[in-house]
Amino acid sequence: FVSGDPNKAVVSTQSTGMCGSISGMVAILNSCLVVASMWRYAAAACVTGAAGYVASNSALFCGAAEGKPFPEIKSQHSLVAKHVTKEKWDKLSGIETATSGFTLGQAISCAVDFDNQHCGIYAGDYDSYKDFADVFDPIIQEYHGITADAKHTSDMDVSKIQGNVHPNAPVKSVRIRVGRSFNGFGLSPGITRQQRLDLEKLLISAFSNFEDDLKGDYYPLLGMEESVRQQLVDDHFLFVSGDPNLISAGMERDWPEGRGIFHNTDKTFLVWVNEEDQTRIISMQKGGDVKAVFERLARAIKAVQESVKKESGKDFLFDEKYGYIHSCPTNLGTGMRASVHIDLPGWTAEGLNALKARCEELKLQPRGTRGESGGQTGVTFDISNKHRLGYSEVELVQCMIDGVNTLFQEDLELQKKHGL
Question: Cβ(381)–Cβ(169) under 8 Å?
Fold first, then answer.
């Protein structure tokens, strides 16, 4: 794991597991460039686990839910600003969910803390979507473009996929991931320390039951040896700490305790444990065989589900309207992101704005290969499905395959146009 983001409030607690003195906290915070903006994180972090890392929801919403004033929402153009009215706040702000004691104030902490949010809300557990439905429902409907009476259908039948990425397309790799959560545990923003540890223990046991090409090893982040850490970094498998949104939403509490990474021997199947979601299940490989990656993913999801259910009786959280439950409402439905890294020199010459517009027409999303906010270098793009909710997994993978093939054929013509 990697720390060092100036937005992260870190307090040394090796000896007692409690926050140090105010003077000690100020000394640490003074070493950062953003003392004033991050004081609320340190002030909100009253208790931490033995791991020695502190990160919590906004200080504005710590403690009892009742009696909190209507907050100033910095992200004035966010969906939270639009749908969290004072009337709704007065009605819902005193509610604490049954599973993890989560509040509406905690749910909207990102929109309160930052001015750059589009959505700006997270769920602390499945209860959040029901207890705060007056807020979540209109946000979800507007973001995903669904109706109030919509139903979600899941379909992982790989035999329904037609064709594959063209063999001549310059695809470097394929990666498909989904998020999955289990009933009885909070989601990452609200999950309690004990729930997180119990879930990790349950998943470690499930991983030990995997067979054949899914068989592998689990690597807990807490106490990880440097040689293991470096290998995971070299493989681009390691998820890291320091994301300001995840910190504000409370997802890095007790970091890195209860988190880890499983991967199979071939390094084509991964599970992230207790990052933004309870689990992120990932299938990937070099080349452009999307169907093979999707087939492995389907088997992996089933293996995780059946192993946990056999041992504990707990199953994936699935809602008739919103599909598989995730902490971020933008991932509801399939929670799937199916992507390829592909060279598109013709589209690069045509311009990024032109590529974005074409991808919008094809229901795709282009990114740089450094991730969502990492920028673009060279001619290699990450192309993925745009939608999550309202479409089945098969439909989204098919959309990605067809769209990538279209972009590839158009890229050949654009290369001619630009003399490449």
Answer: no
Q: What share of the chain is helix, strand, coil (3-state, %, to 5)?
A: 40, 15, 45
Q: For 353-379, what is each residue's pLDDT tens digit?
A: 999 999 999 999 999 876 554 556 689
**Has 280 been annotated as catalytic?**
yes
What predicted TM-score, i.e. pTM, was given to this entire model? 0.84
Where does residue 310 fall: left (phi above 0), alpha (psi -120 to 50 degrees), or beta otherwise?
A: alpha
Q: What does the alpha-carbon distance between residue 25 and residue 19 come to, in Å, rounded to a whole number?
A: 8
H helix or E strand, kind and range, residue 34: none
Instruction: Tally the residues of the chain.
Output: 420
Q: Which of 253, 259, 299, 337 is catalytic?
A: 337
∠ Cα 222 225 226 (to 5°): 120
Full DSSP string of 42-71: HHH--B--TT-----S-GGG-S-STTPPPP
Catalytic, 175? Answer no
Cα distances from 343 to residues 174, 196, 415, in angstroms, run: 13, 40, 12
CB atoms under 10 Å from CB of 378, counted, come to 10
Is 82 in contact with 136 (CB distance < 8 Å)? no
In the predicted model, what is the mean pLDDT of the chain? Answer: 87
Q: How far is residue 228's CA from residue 235's CA, in Å, rounded to a whole number?
A: 11
Q: Quick one: DSSP state of residue 192? A: -
372 labelled catalytic: yes
Catalytic member of 48, 97, 268, 330:
330
The distance in angstroms from the start CA to the end CA of the chain is 41
- The crossing angle, in degrees rounded to 10, of helices 35-44 and 22-29 is 140
What ranges make up the beta strands (E) of 229-291? 260-264, 269-273, 279-286
- The active-site residue out of 13, 40, 48, 177 is 177
